[in-house]
Specification:
- The chain has two helices and no strands.
- It has 84 residues and is mainly alpha-helical.
- The protein has one domain: Orthogonal Bundle (Helix Hairpins), CATH 1.10.287.
- Helix 1 (20-36) runs antiparallel to helix 2.
- The protein is rod-shaped and about 65 Å long.
- It starts with 19 loop residues before the first helix and ends with a helix.
């Protein structure tokens, strides 16, 4: 039985415009392709580089989200203290 081929992600795209979910999905696809052995060494390295960029994007989105949650929590605490 032939191995199921994973769709090839577009390696030229800059991940900065991707949502967290889109970046994670592309990262999962890259990992599957690399682990399947269906790509050669050079393409694996290129996809690994793309994966690093996707991970950086995900970390950035998470950090921004964490800061926003902390700010909202701080505002809520201040409002509660003012109401008390």
């Amino acid at each position: 039985m032939a191995a199921k081929k994973q769709p090839k992600p577009d390696l030229s795209d800059d991940p900065s415009g991707l949502s967290f979910e889109e970046a994670m999905s592309q990262l999962e696809t890259l990992i599957e392709r690399i682990e399947s052995g269906e790509v050669g060494l050079e393409e694996s390295i290129a996809e690994y580089e793309r994966g690093v960029k996707l991970i950086q994007r995900c970390k950035g989105v998470l950090a921004t989200s964490e800061q926003r949650v902390e700010e909202l929590s701080r505002q809520l605490r201040e409002q509660d203290e003012a109401d008390a």
